[in-house]
Amino acid sequence: MSSWHDGLAAPPRVLISPRPLDASAQGNVLSLRHPRSGDETGYLFIDGQLQEINWFKERYGAWFLGDYVCEDGGLYYCTPVDPIFIFLPIFEAARMSNGNDPGKFRQLDEILYIEGYPGYQQLMSVAGHHMELVCEVKEVANMKFFRLVDSKVLSWLCCKVHNLKEVFPKLGKNYAAQAEKERLKEAVQMIREYLKDEPWSTLLCKKLQLDLNEIINDVTTKTSEASFYADSCPAPARPSEGKEVNGSAKSSKGRPAKKPKTEVGSKNIKDMFRRVTRSGSGS
Hints:
Order of helices and strands: EEEEEEEHHHEEHHHHHH
Number of strands: 9
Structural class: alpha+beta
């Protein structure tokens, strides 16, 4: 059953992403599972690079695109993400390990077949190259079989944490003044946003001799402080708030303005591009 808006052109959206090496490269918007939450999340695959699509919006805002005013002031921006983070949960499930049993070897096309998520199949060209870093690979009759290896995953994660920790001092005086252990915890906090706590965050903290519960508490504290700060910021007044309602004067001076809902953070944008894809494919 078609919706009333199916024939309408999709409104313009503002999206910022790194410039591809090939200027003529055509990107694909993919719906994949977020590696930590498992929620459906939007990614852009272009020029052999996977980019995470994020969404941010101020309380009030619009874009001026030439002579057109885009009422949706939201900003979509793409940031490169290591595909191993995205593949890790499905390779972990695919090996079907149990206790001391390291699990089974599987072919890529078998591992990347996820019901309801055909986007994984489009990553076949990059999956093998990346996952060889964290998998044991066997080749039989010109066919490669992969099995995730915990020790390789931990080595890769430790390398990620170390590289991130070394970048922090270059970001400003606050980071440069941090002790070594604090920078290490900060790096693990950021990496943890793309990992399930069991088993990877737990194993990583054990390897680095860190307390996972302490890291979780630090994140909770920072989130609470950020929410308090956001709630404390007064919303700017809008001209429409000074109009009369039901014949009585309801100006911003006479009554505090109703606080609008803040829309910030990450959001799946598959639906935003659905009509564009449909109209572009001719279906």
